[in-house]
Design brief:
Blueprint: E1 3-8, H1 15-29, E2 33-37, H2 41-49, E3 53-54, H3 69-74, H4 78-83, H5 89-106, E4 110-114, H6 117-125, E5 130-135, H7 160-169, E6 186-190, E7 205-208, E8 238-242, H8 258-268, E9 274-278, E10 295-298, H9 303-309, E11 312-315, H10 319-328, E12 332-334, H11 339-350, E13 354-356, E14 360-361, E15 367-368, H12 371-383, H13 385-398, H14 403-417
Parallel strand pairs: 1-2, 1-4, 2-3, 4-5, 5-6, 6-7, 8-9, 8-11, 9-10, 11-12, 12-13
Antiparallel strand pairs: 14-15
């Protein structure tokens, strides 16, 4: 049996662990030794729910990053995005050292990473085989986040020089682009060539949607009070609103998704629909007080089951949420909050499975949407069966890629070959 270490960008969101946990669980169920590293609170809960081993940080302290949220929110592609995450050579050096310790202490046969170039560089330094699990628009051979534009602007910032220095200090070749570190010796792409295209000559394997669902998972009993396509409650359409982390800090930032909650309440409070609002193990901001009578909040529900039960999903454009929609064959209305999410949202819209309502940022730093435009989009998607037919078509087409089982098989073969 092999030993696998799963790493990912340690953001306090469920997107990356939702992608990685099903694969880790599949490998563990096949008898392999598996550990996951993401010390953030919300991912920790999902890792524990999956019954997986969560590695604590090594003895060496993790450095605290100083971030520029503008490239993170408005990055043209992942290279531009990372310029806002890795802002100093010393931070990259110190963070890489932590991951090198982590990898050497655990001594995996394979490091399996998603979206953390620090871990990818550390794997190279520690001479550990590297597999990556990526969405299409963050693979080095993709057109990036703004795939609908013709040319990448000249002169966008990059953190490549910092990574290059640290790589050379450890006897490795210079790094021309940070994104190239994530190519991996094995690259698995979540989704399909239709939802997540990359260059035709890229050496990748599509694995279909990655959505975590525990074997004994069930929706809370109170969901039966609501309507929805498989419900017998109110008989009204059921809308699932998922905001993810509404606020990352106490003050407004360009990456917040509280706009999703505000728009849903403003547009749907007096409509003949039922709304279940979830926040991904995050607290509901106090500003909302008592929710409208047709709303119910839960910090977390099993996403795949909720997606199958509801008639429409409203969310922030995260890739894992797009995969949840498409796997369930449920249409969506998306309010994308950063460029990466605009990219995902526009892919789903291009497939015919939903609509996009773009927010604008006010002088106070808060994002807002035109409530009338959002309400009209919700009514269109609920009222026109073409959106559901498109989502169901994609769901059917994705079944052939095998999901976590295919991913686990590819990783087993990779570990055995190594």
């Amino acid at each position: 049996m092999a030993r696998f270490l799963f790493t990912m960008l340690p953001a306090n969101d469920l997107g990356l662990p939702t992608r990685m946990v099903p694969i880790a669980r599949a490998l563990a169920d096949r008898g392999h030794e598996v550990a996951v590293f993401n010390p953030s609170p919300a991912p920790q809960k999902l890792i524990a729910e999956a019954g997986l081993t969560s590695l604590p940080p090594p003895a060496r302290p993790m450095p605290q990053p100083a971030m520029d949220l503008n490239p993170i929110a408005e990055g043209w592609d992942v290279e531009h995005f990372f310029s806002g995450v890795y802002m100093s050579e010393q931070y990259v050096r110190d963070a890489v050292a932590v991951y090198v310790d982590l990898i050497r202490d655990y001594a995996p046969d394979v490091v399996v990473d998603s979206f953390e170039p620090i871990a990818c560089l550390a794997a190279r330094i520690a001479k550990a085989p590297l597999a990556t699990v990526l969405q299409g628009n963050i693979h080095p051979a993709s057109r990036g986040f703004t795939w609908w534009e013709d040319e990448r602007p000249v002169g966008l910032p990059s953190a490549a020089a910092f990574f290059s220095t640290v790589a050379q200090e450890n006897g490795l070749a210079p790094v021309e682009r940070v994104v190239d570190l994530m190519a991996g010796d094995l690259a698995l792409i979540v989704g399909s060539p239709e939802s997540d295209p990359v260059a035709q000559d890229a050496n990748v394997t599509w694995i279909g949607p990655m959505v975590f669902l525990r074997a004994d998972a069930a929706l809370p009993p109170w969901v039966e009070e609501f309507g929805g396509r498989h419900g017998s409650g109110s008989g009204r359409p059921l809308v699932w609103v998922y905001s993810g982390n509404p606020r990352y800090f106490t003050a407004p930032t360009p990456v917040d998704s509280i706009v999703v909650i505000r728009a849903a309440i403003a547009a749907l409070a007096n409509e003949p629909v039922d709304v279940i609002l979830t926040t991904g193990y995050q607290e509901l901001p106090a500003e909302f007080g008592e929710l409208p009578k047709n709303f119910r909040h839960a910090a977390y529900v099993p996403g795949p089951l909720m997606a199958e039960r509801c008639d429409l999903i409203v969310f922030h454009g995260g890739h894992s949420s797009v995969m949840t929609c498409l796997k369930a064959g449920t249409p969506a209305v998306i309010i994308p909050t950063i460029t990466e999410r605009v990219s995902n949202a526009r892919r789903l819209q291009a497939l015919g499975a939903g609509e996009v309502v773009m927010p604008v940022t006010g002088a106070d730093g808060e994002k807002r949407v035109d409530i009338a435009e959002f309400a009209a989009a919700v009514k269109r998607v609920l009222g026109d069966a073409k959106y559901r037919r498109a989502a169901q078509r994609v769901a059917e087409s994705m079944k052939k890629y095998g999901g976590a089982v295919t991913a686990a098989e590819k990783l087993e073969q990779f570990a055995g070959h190594r």
